[in-house]
Structure formats: structure tokens, C-alpha cells
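Known limitations

C-alpha cells in this collection are predictions and should be treated as such. Users comparing against experimental data should check residue numbering before alignment. To illustrate the layout, the record for DUF1016 domain-containing protein is reproduced below. The input appears on top and the generated C-alpha cells appear beneath it.
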Amino acid sequence: MMELVNQQEYQALVNQISNTYEVGRQRAAQAVNTHLVNTYWEIGQYIVEFEQRGALRAAYGKRLLEQLATDLTIRYGKGFSRSNLNHMRSLYITYPICETLSHKLGWSHYVELLKTDDPLERSFYEKQAINERWNVRELKRQKKSSLFLRLAASKDKDGILQLAKQGQQVAKPDDIIRDPYVLDFLKIPEPHHYTESELESRIIEHLQHFLLELGKGFAFIGRQYRITLGNRHHYVDLVFYHRILKCFVLIDLKREEAGYEDVGQMNMYLGYFENEENTEGDNPPIGIVLAKEKDELLIQYAMHNVSSQLFVSKYQLYLPNKEELRAVIEETLDE
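Generated C-alpha cells:
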């Protein structure tokens, strides 16, 4: 490199060009993605309108898609399988107004969303994928874990409709709480006599999946976070910071049932963090006792006059029963 070039200024130039290029490349990819989704929507429109002018029989539509797939594949190669053409058709039927399609979601997102028949459930996952910037893999994971059904099962009719319309909004502590938390990604077989230490270690090994289960806004701070009171050491299993709520989130793991002593211990942790760890601008910390089982009545009394920032939730190591959750939601909506 020429001696006349100031190294610091040159490096700044390289960084400036790199940043501009990366932003431009992302915008270009987003623009291509938006045009691709809109193009597939138009193709779906052409197919539906053509079908409506012909025989309205299922066999007719199937033969039409098969013939289109053959002819368009000969002309363009990949991208026009019968399955993909059927997705384009479904896209137009499900989203009859093109402007309702989000430029923040790709074609693969919409293919995954179209697999969900229930409009409320589909709307939730669409909004949540936009809000939390899920990639397709994360979207599949959240659908598989029945996130909408788990959140909706604890809400009233208005809450369910709002959840479907806006996604999960985070404005107060209980907005980040889930009950149960689904930890199937830990791959702990049942029955298996694991220890709390093993449970914690597996969560750390699968931290990315655990953060996805926790939801938007969580940043990992540490494990076995030591606090000292009266020359005695205590350890919080997992500590996070929530960027949106601007507070620490403490999680204490329990292998079996949560007891009243676990509530008292977490309440102590919350008091310590609020007085010793919080800095200017931090809100009061949130505590979650995460246990395999809980006695609702016992927990109710144990939490009498205890901080409203403290929650006791269950976790499960397997995927939830979707039909049972749907039945609860349908009953609520019928009311």
C-alpha cells in the first residue's frame, strides 16, 4: 500500500464501503424477495380466475395444476412443481388483497404459514414472525411448540382476538410469561432422573433454542450468578436482561414441584437485585420459578402479598397436545 495513505483513514474508508455494501445487499435481497412473493401471488390469481371460468371440480383443478407444472417446468426449469403452484394458488385465496402481504416475510415464510388452516392461529404466527424477525426455521419451531395455543389458552375472548391481530405485545412483566414452557429441544427422555444441574447445563448447551422459547428481548447474562448475604453465598440459576422491559429476569430451575420455600427464595433474589444490581434506568427485576409441577392453591397462598414481579411456571419436556389446547380456546371463543 502506498505510504501516502493514512492507515486509519483508509481503514475507515474500507469500513464505510463495507457497511454501505452490506446494507445495499440486504435491501436488494429484500426487494427481490418482495417481488417474488408478489409475482407468486399474481400467478395464483391467474390460476384461480382460470379455474372459475372452467369446471368447478376438484379433479379439474388437479389436472390443471399437473399440466401447468409440466409445461412451465419445461419452459423455466425449477420453481413450478405442482406443489409450488398449489401454494401460489393458496396464497391468493388466503390473502386476496396483495397489499396485505408483508415485505418482511419471504416466500418460504408464507409457504409455512399456509399450512395453518385456522385464520387466528395463522395471523398470530404471521405477526409474530414480523415482530420478532423469525427465520423460517424459528417459525417452524414456534408452530411445532404450539406457541399461539399456549398463549391463547390463558386469555379471554378479547385477549385471543388481540393476540391473533397483533401478535404477543411486550409492555408489562406478565407479557413475557409462558405456562408451560416447552423444552423438548433439550432431548431429555421421559422418564429420566435428571438433576437440576443437568437441566441447567442442557439449557446452556441449547441456549439459542431457549432464548427463542423465552421470546423477544432476552439477553443472557450468566448462570449460577452469585449473590452474598450475611457471609453466605446464594446462586441464581440463570440471569437474563430484558431489553424491552429494561429489567433483569431471574430464573430458578426446579426438577420437581415448586414449593413455598422456592417462592420465598426467589423473592429474596428479587430484593437483592433491585437494591444491589440495578442501575439508573433499570426497572424492578422479574423472577420466574420454573418447575416441572406446581400446586396452584399452594402457590396462590405462598405468593400472598409477594412481589407482583414473581411468577411460578411449569415446563414440559415434550410437545403439548394441540387438540386439548384448541378445545380450551374454542370454548372461550364460543362464550
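For this record: The first strand starts at residue 181 and ends at 182. The mean pLDDT is 89. Please report discrepancies through the issue tracker.
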